[in-house]
């Protein structure tokens, strides 16, 4: 029941500052686009992400003692690995269409890029606790906390599942105007969901045993 309690408690905190949540959601979406810029974009994302989350936590009166250097490493490493895989895929596709007309080359490029991107995703998952733990101040050195990170990932699926149910009901009862409303809903979820997830992680980390 603790996980469900975290979801409920975090929502109570989150709903008090919806304007701030909107601001953070918009900024985070913009920052996500910046992350596609090689090296400079990765650096800016890893640098600004913790600062934005700290600003948001302060607005929610969540006590933080950020270790920015740890948060930066925890974000930069998996992001760089993932984006390198993405770049390999893009370059492979472009070379296939304009220079190397070999399906084997294209397939190998896609396979290699996917493997690298999956490694980056796994690293991100394993460093999830380190990222938010260092932002809050619970973690002061770069280290993988596999169990705690996976736990954060799993509790994040609870509100995601609730949203999925809402989507399903929406499609069942609003079939005619569904596509338009769905588009609007997706935008709103894309803006408001990340700040809520940050709040959920904060509540969960604060209640975790050291």
Low-confidence stretches: none
Gross geometry: globular
Class from secondary-structure proportions: mainly alpha
Count of domain modules:
1
How far from one another are the termini? 19 Å
Mean pLDDT: 90
Radius of gyration: 19 Å
Helix content: over 70%
Largest sheet: none
Tell me the number of strands.
0
Count of DSSP H/I helices: 8
Strand content: under 5%
The SSE string, one letter per element, is HHHHHHHH
Considering the chains and any ligands shown, give keywords for the structure:
8 helices, mainly alpha, 82% helix, 210 residues, 0% strand
Q: How would you describe this structure to a colleague?
A:
The chain is mainly alpha-helical and 210 residues long. It has one domain (2-207). Helix content is 82%, strand content 0%. It is built from eight helices and no strands. It has helices spanning 2-14, 18-34, 40-59, 68-98, 103-126, 128-136, 146-173, 178-207. The two termini are 19 Å apart.
Secondary-structure blueprint of this entry?
Blueprint: H1 2-14, H2 18-34, H3 40-59, H4 68-98, H5 103-126, H6 128-136, H7 146-173, H8 178-207
Helix pairs in contact: 1-8, 2-3, 2-8, 3-4, 3-6, 4-5, 4-6, 6-8, 7-8
